[in-house]
Amino acid sequence: MASPMTASRIRGLPKYEPVRSHANGDRTYATPLGSCSSVTTILSNTRDSSGLEQWRESVGEARADFICSLAAFRGTRHHDHVERFLTDGTEPAFDFLNTPYWNSSRDFLRRIDKPLVMEGAIYHPLRYAGTFDCIAYMDDDGEQPTLLDWKTADKIRNPAKMYEYSLQVAAYTAAANYVYKPQGLNITRALIVVAIPDEAPQIEELSPRKLTQYMQHFEARIKRFTRARR
User: Fold this and answer.
1) Residue 24 backbone phi and psi in degrees, to 5
2) Per-residue confidence of the chain (230 residues) as pLDDT tens digits?
3) What pTM value is reported for the model?
4) Which of the residues 19, 29, 104, 215 could staple to 129 if both were Cys, CB 3.0 to 4.6 A apart?
5) At a CB cut-off of 8 Å and minimum separation 6, what does 51 contact?
6) Three-state SS letters, 124-140
C-alpha cells in the first residue's frame, strides 16, 4: 500500500539538462563549478579492464563491437520506455528485442508512487558530474524519495559488475543531494534495477551505510583518475 502524502514530502524538483562535451575519449559536463568529468569517464578509466580485453580477444573485435552496440541500443530503448511509462502510463508496443526487458521491469515500476525528475544533470564539489535516471517516491518511502537506476542484462550480473554500478549510483546520490539541497532533498536509499529478459529484475538496494561506503570508494577512484591526468 502506498505511503500517505505528508506536508514535508518534496512536491517536485527542477530538471537540469546536461551540457556535455567530449575530448580525447573523455566526457565532461559544463556546470556552475566549471568543467567536470563524468562519473562514467572516471569509473571507466580507473577500473580493471583485463577481463573485458580478454573477452574482446576471444570473440573478435567486430563481434565485440556489435554486441556492445546492441547492448547500448537496448539500454537506451529501455530507458525511453521506462520514462514514457512514468510520464503518462504508456506501455511500449511489442517487439522481440525490447519487450522481454520491459516484462522484467513492469511490476517493479508499478510500485512507484510519484516520479519527481528523470534524466537530470547533477554535479558535485569533488568536480564530477553526471545524469541520473530517476528520483521518485516508492510505495514504501517516507519523507525522502529514492534514486533509481535502470540497467539491462541477459543474465544476473556478477558482483564485480554490480560493484561498479553501485559506485556510479552512490556518486549520483551524493551529487543529487548537493544540487537539490535547497529543495530539501536528502536521499538515503538507492535502487539499481537490472531488467533480465522475461524474469524478475535483479535489484540491488543501497542503504545509507552502503551509500557512504561506496562513495568513499568512488572518492578514491577520483583521486586515481586525477593523478593519471597530471
Assistant:
1) 55, 35
2) 344 444 589 999 999 999 999 887 789 999 999 999 999 999 999 987 666 666 577 767 777 666 667 777 787 899 999 999 999 999 999 998 899 999 999 999 999 999 999 999 999 999 999 999 999 999 999 999 999 999 999 999 999 999 999 999 999 999 999 999 999 999 999 999 999 998 999 999 999 999 999 999 999 999 999 998 87
3) 0.91
4) 29
5) 160
6) ECCCEEEECCEEEEECC
Q: What is the DSSP letter of 96?
A: T
Residue identified by cell 560493484 is 163
Q: Helical H runs in 89-207?
A: 99-109, 159-179
What number of other Cβ atoms are within 10 A of residue 139's Cβ?
11
